[in-house]
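Morning F.,

Quick status update on the modeling queue. The single chain you submitted on Monday has been processed. Sequence for confirmation:
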Amino acid sequence: MKKIKLIMILALMFITGFSAKSQNINEKPIFHYSVLDALRNGVYTGDLNIAVLRTKGDFGLGTYNYLDGEMIVLNGIFYQITGDGKVSIAESKLKTPFAAVTFFKADKVYELVGISDFEEMQKEIVKNLPSENKSYAVQIECEFESMKVGSANRVKENETTGLVELMKTRPLFEKQNVIGTLVGFYTPAYMSTVNLSPFHFHFLSKDRKFGGHFMSGKFNSAVKIKVRIDEKPGLLVVFPENNQAFERSWLQEKTAKSVY
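Structure tokens below.
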């Protein structure tokens, strides 16, 4: 991958609060390849492959070129959940148009109990954040009484329809009594063009046979939900290069919803 221009790095340090003092592996920022607004404006290709992305983090989410399924990264393994719901380990040569990854190490671990649904869980997590104005990697181990996830069908190479419109007919999968892990990020509302806000989660079941973009879910209120929070020093955003779809003018579609 080519060097990032110095002016871009300086701008990102200013915008995201990334400190030059944060240099060890446990303090690295969230690495973003492209931004969510690119997907919202029909940019479905990138030049970064999984082999390189693996050096940027062991935890995260995203998608693959031409929306060929959902990406979930857990314990250093990159998974691909395709439009038919199949879960497999992603090939290193696959490329991504959008991904967010980081090296995960929890700063705070706690349990929630008596939570009925995902909306209530989000509110409780936000209450426990040191600040709502910073970015966090969030890992949640839980058992759902029922849940719904989505994937994406691979699009044609010349597809430019925006993500919101495409997701109206996305593949959806429902499951009851499933144990697994939510992998995702908390992003402040002022950065909702970069990632979904307040939360963006992908789910992977414990048996690695079910997963996707998390849509909704209900809990047995007696079950404990284990939450791990990794406070990050900021974001490092790298843009696709020589990408006409990324470089053209976009409609500035703003949204802060974490379900699409």
